[in-house]
Amino acid sequence: MVRETVFQGGSGSGDEPPRRPPGGSPPGGPPPGSPPPGQPFNPDDDQFDEALRPKHLEQVIGQAKVVERIQVMLDATRKRGDTLGHLLLDGPPGIGKTTLATVIPRELGVELQIAAGPALSAPKDLLPYLTNASPGSVLFIDEIHRLPAAVEEFLYPAMEDFRIDIALGDGLNARTINMQLKPFTVIGATTRAGMLTAPMRDRFVYREHLDFYEVEDLVEIIRRNAVKLRTTITDTAAFEIARRSQGTPRKANNLLLRTRDVATLRDDKGEITTEVAAEALEMLEIDTFGLERQDRRYLETLMDIFGGGPAGLQAIAHSMSVPPDTLEDDIEPFLLRSGLIQRTPRGRVATDAAYRHVGRTPPRTPGNADDSDDEPPQKKLF
Ligand SMILES: Nc1ncnc2c1ncn2[C@@H]1O[C@H](COP(=O)(O)OP(=O)(O)OP(=O)(O)O)[C@@H](O)[C@H]1O
Ligand SMILES: [Mg+2]
């Protein structure tokens, strides 16, 4: 089933995102993607995500090396009048995979179809996408690591030779029909590159890993999005939000929205000041590191129930009553990257820094030779 309508990219009238709210912006008014006057954003609506999403490569902030390589891919493809090679984007949630996957076809002026890996349960589900693909178009497959094996195998010849083999009938009447497809590009996105099978991974000519963002890049994203949301924010407030966004633009956007709510209530001009940001962050229980309640619960579970580890993912998930996938996708990447936990062959381990962060003294164990624990524990979370 086609989850999202195909849109025409390029510089013509089809240059709009698929779900942009109706109505244009006045000249000199807010940037494209803002809601029409009088129509507020509803954070529960994914229109919000769409409206803040960069539409062109030049609007994509940060990830300089990745963007530079994508620009080269696009320029070379355009110059040759070719079809872009298949591209795999991997990285933690909210980091810009869908953004890049939608920007690329728009830059190339080709059509885009969007499919979700888990929704493609059998080869027949993929068939309409493949037969609908116009020459040079992009098929974006989100969560590509969750494609069932049969669908993956069906996709291989489509990606390699733009051909599919359809089996008809069975027993003595069984036969296979070969169908030629138009050349097209698969852009796959995954939060778990490691879960992709080797044959699937090998079919991508280009592979790009998106990493957490620098605070300065998040500050820039927050500033630009504040303009789109028609709100004002001070530099220090933008910095405070940015440094507590776990290096993730989606979190920065969400915090911007939540602080904007507080600003509406607390500040005459509705400006997001440092005080407003501090109040909102405290209300949301986001600490100086950017950890949310659930992140701290993870650390405390690891320390209290498993003595700091090593503990297996399943066991931690069970203790927290949270699906293991949620821990692995949403919580662990930032804790790992911040050095608060380690993944060892025997399981997850809380580091000394984690103990200090939640205001505890690190236990002295043979493997815990760091002597710097005379440093007072950080009790203050805000
Ligand atoms: N490089 C960027 N510059 C500006 N804004 C960005 C950038 N990357 C992401 N964003 C913002 O963050 C939001 C979330 O990004 P996106 O949907 O692309 O993440 P994702 O990697 O696809 O996440 P998921 O794995 O959950 O699907 C976007 O709507 C956009 O507003
Ligand atoms: Mg996405």
Question: What does this molecule look like?
Answer:
The protein is α/β, with parallel strands linked by helices. It is built from 14 helices and 10 strands. It starts with a strand and ends in a 25-residue tail after the last helix. The chain has 3 domains: 52-209, Rossmann fold; 215-284, Helicase, Ruva Protein, domain 3 (Orthogonal Bundle), CATH 1.10.8; 293-358, Arc Repressor Mutant, subunit A (Orthogonal Bundle). The strands form 3 sheets. It has a 6-stranded mixed beta sheet, with helices on both faces. The radius of gyration is 24 Å and the shape is globular. The structure holds adenosine-5'-triphosphate and magnesium ion (MG). The site of magnesium ion (MG) has 4 residues, from helix 3. Residues 49, 52-54, 60-63, 93-99, 189, 191, 221, 249-250, 253 line the site of adenosine-5'-triphosphate. One of its GO terms (biological process) is DNA repair.
Largest sheet: 6 strands, mixed
Give the termini distance in whole angstroms: 47 Å
What is the top-level CATH class of the largest domain? Alpha Beta
Question: In one word, what is the shape?
Answer: globular
On the 0 to 100 scale, the average pLDDT is 85
Find the structural class using helix and strand composition.
Answer: alpha/beta
Low-confidence stretches: 1-45, 368-382
- Total domain units: 3
Instruction: Name the strands of the widest sheet in spatial order.
Output: 1-3-4-7-2-8
Tally the helices: 14
Helix content: 40-55%
What's the total number of strands?
Answer: 10
Write the CATH architecture name of the largest domain: 3-Layer(aba) Sandwich
Which small-molecule ligands are present, each listed once? adenosine-5'-triphosphate, magnesium ion
Beta-strand residue fraction: 5-15%
Output the helix-strand order: EHHEHEHEHEEEHEHHHHHHHEEH
Mind telling me the C-alpha Rg? Answer: 24 Å
* CATH homologous superfamily annotation of the largest domain: P-loop containing nucleotide triphosphate hydrolases
Q: How is the CATH topology of the largest domain named?
A: Rossmann fold
Pfam family, one: WHD_RuvB
GO cellular component, one term: cytoplasm
GO molecular function, one term: four-way junction helicase activity
Catalytic activity: ATP + H2O = ADP + phosphate + H(+)
